[in-house]
Sequence to fold (379 residues):
Amino acid sequence: KIIIMKVALITGISGQDGSYLAELLLDKGYKVHGIKRRASSLNTQRIDHLYQDPHHPNQRLKLHYGDLSDAMNLTRIIQETQPDEIYNLGAMSHVKVSFDTPEYVGNVDGLGTLRILEAVRILGLEKKTRIYQASTSELYGGIPENKNESGFYDEFSPFYPRSPYGVAKIYGFWITKNYREAYNMFACNGILFNHESPRRGETFVTRKITRAVSKIALGLQDKFYLGNLDAQRDWGHAKDYVRMMWMILQADQPEDWVIATGVTTKVREFVRLAFGEVGIELEFKGDGVEEKAYIKVCNHKDYQLEIGKEVLSVDPTYFRPTEVDLLIGDPSKAKKKLGWVPEHDLKFLVKDMMESDLRLMKKDVILLKAGHKILKQAE
Ligand code: NAP
Ligand code: GDD
Fold:
């Protein structure tokens, strides 16, 4: 009996989503190719556990050096790997940083998508290769009047991006839709709302919070700084969202899909929940840039911090020139048509991230005791 193994190619395999997706696809029996960038230090920590022995005959994960700014490289990799599915997750994905590197972001996040689509077309793989494009809730820009009647963003809500990242991603969205319509390609957008995990990049707000709270609880850091505490996000767990990426490419028809939880939460509340995991209740005082958080109650036997201690201030450095104030999505279509059911809620997400970061920071306590200097605070 011949078993036909599906082949997937993932750009951005070393990122949060790429690593969970690679795990999922390997579990499903795929041969997985990933594109990684050449860097002066190792950047594959999130997938090293999947890639222990590249010489093993059963190794089904193969990494290729490449970059979304390099069309020849992408075309060659697609030609060599002949993928059944491409997941284009590679991107400069930090919204605030995109204001500092707008041309680069346009090239990689916008034109990079075109390079993938065009390579598939040039190679005559339109019928064989299905393409997932990592679109984003940043496309909506949080404009209140663009929500639907029930108060959510859905597949019909107008876009109004508010950052160079969002503007680049809107090109990626439309070029994917255009290639689907123009060349009959199975090319789909997943419009994903924020999703987090213990593998989230250290400078996104949730991970910055869980890292800082863990360090404060363990006595490694006194306080930390955030920007806009009033911003609201629809936060889900990355594991649920990568499952949906795969489901999108298994659907009967190529379409665009909103993936979200339908619940929105303020950054300030996320901070409270994270401190709650180490038995600490906070009191917030002051307004705007003067707002600060202090320890009000501390009743965990392992984490004894002084009542009244200041643990959080606002630093305007983290404000964005244009902000997306509130995001909340309606995933009804994905639930109804594809049967997607998220398995994790916000409470679980915070717990998962806090447990992981506490474990990580406890290693720093050991290093500190051994006389080493410890990590700087992430920005
Ligand atoms: P991430 O952790 O920042 O990972 C991004 C990946 O892209 C990394 O592997 C990175 O490589 C790679 N990359 C960056 N620049 C590249 C380039 N020039 N060429 C090739 N690869 C490049 O992002 P994520 O959270 O996993 O998100 C995955 C995708 O979904 C991104 O496109 C993001 O914009 C989009 N998205 C994310 C969310 C979310 O909440 N997480 C929501 C909606 C959409 P290095 O490891 O070398 O940096
Ligand atoms: N990063 C960061 N750092 N954000 C902060 C901070 C801080 O110190 N303080 C407040 N925030 C606010 C931001 O202003 C924003 O309103 C919110 O927290 C979330 O910021 P991020 O975690 O950086 O994520 P994002 O929503 O801007 O973008 C993420 O989600 C998008 C989907 O909506 C990224 O993953 C994007 O790639 C993704 O497309």
Observations:
- Residues 93, 95-96, 136-138, 193-194, 203-205, 208, 226-228, 231, 233, 267, 318, 320, 323-324, 327 surround guanosine-5'-diphosphate-alpha-D-mannose (ligand 2) (CB under 6 Å).
